[in-house]
Specification:
Order of helices and strands: EHHEHEHHHEEEHEHEHEE
Number of helices: 9
Low-confidence stretches: none
Helix content: 40-55%
Number of domains: 2
Strand content: 5-15%
Shape: globular
C-alpha cells in the first residue's frame, strides 16, 4: 500500500528495478522467452501494489482509516487473500504546512474558531488521528510502516553522535510513534574551487559531472536523545551505509560501523 501524498511515485521506475532484480535472480534466462516470462511476473506483481493519492491531511487520515475495509473486500482488488507486507507514506509531512495555514486562518475569525474549538482542524489533532489508525492497522495486519519526510533543519550535535540528525517539524504525537529514524543524504560533490580558470573548469567538468551522475548516497540510523531510541540505534549496529542509485536500481557498498 503506497500513500503517494507528493504525487511523485513512479511506477515506471519500480518496473526498472524489478527487471534488474529478475535479471540478477535468473541470469540463465535470456532471449525473448526470458523477457516475456519476466514481464509476466512483473505484471502479476503490480496487481498487488495499491497506490492512493490523498490530496489533504484529512484525506490521508480517512484513507488509512478505511484501508481495512478496502483490503478485505474481494470485489475491489485481487489482493484480499494476501498479507499486507508494507504501508509506505511518501511523504508524511506533505500536508503539514497546508494544515497549519488553515489553522492560522481560522484564528482570525473568532466565531469560526469557536465553532471548531474541538480542535478538529489542528495539525496535531489530525496527526493524532492518523497515528491511532496506523497503530490499529499495524496491530491487525502485522505490516511494516515506512514514512518519508524532508530533513530541513539540522539538529544541534549530540554528545557521542556520529552523524547528523535533523529537527522534525511534525507534532510530538508523530515523533512518539516512530521507532527508528534513518537519515538518507546524497553525497556532496566537490565544487569548483574559487579562482579556478575557465579552461581548467571546462577540462574538469566531465569528471565532476560523472560524479554527479553516479548517484552516490549515504544513510545512517539517527541517534536520538532519549534512551529508548539510542538502544534501538545500537541494536541496529551499522551506523552508516553507502549506496548508489543508478538506472538499474540500488547497489550497496561496504558499511561503516
Amino acid at each position: 500500500m503506497i500513500m503517494d501524498t507528493d504525487g511523485r511515485f513512479d511506477v515506471a521506475r519500480l518496473v526498472e528495478i524489478m527487471q534488474t532484480m529478475l535479471r540478477q535472480g535468473r541470469p540463465s534466462e535470456n532471449g525473448d522467452s526470458g523477457a516475456d516470462h519476466s514481464n509476466q511476473i512483473i505484471m502479476n506483481a503490480l496487481k498487488h501494489v495499491h497506490i492512493f493519492r490523498p490530496q489533504s491531511l484529512q484525506s490521508l487520515v480517512a484513507t488509512v482509516q478505511t484501508l481495512p475495509r478496502y483490503l478485505l473486500n474481494p470485489t475491489k482488488h485481487p489482493s484480499s487473500e494476501r498479507s499486507l507486507d508494507l504501508l509506505a507514506i511518501d511523504s508524511i509531512g506533505a500536508f503539514f504546512w497546508q494544515e497549519k495555514m488553515t489553522e492560522e486562518a481560522l484564528k482570525f475569525d473568532s466565531e469560526e474558531f469557536s465553532t471548531h474549538n474541538n480542535q478538529r482542524h489542528t495539525a496535531a489533532n489530525q496527526y493524532s488521528h492518523l497515528v491511532t489508525h496506523l497503530r490499529a492497522l499495524q496491530q491487525r495486519f502485522g505490516c511494516a510502516i515506512i514514512a518519508t519526510n524532508w530533513g530541513i533543519s539540522p539538529a544541534p550535535p549530540q554528545r557521542g553522535a556520529l552523524y547528523t540528525s535533523y529537527r522534525s517539524f511534525l507534532p510530538p504525537v508523530w515523533q512518539a510513534f516512530i521507532t527508528t529514524r534513518i537519515v538518507v543524504e546524497r553525497d556532496a560533490v566537490t565544487k569548483f574551487p574559487v579562482g579556478m580558470l575557465p579552461k581548467q573548469a571546462k577540462r574538469d567538468a566531465p569528471v565532476r559531472q560523472a560524479a554527479v551522475d553516479e548517484g552516490r548516497f549515504s544513510a545512517w540510523v539517527e541517534q536520538r536523545q532519549d534512551a529508548m531510541n539510542r538502544e534501538r540505534a545500537d541494536a541496529v549496529g551499522v551506523r552508516k551505509v553507502a549506496f548508489l542509485i543508478t538506472q538499474e536500481g540500488v547497489s550497496f557498498e561496504k558499511s561503516e560501523m
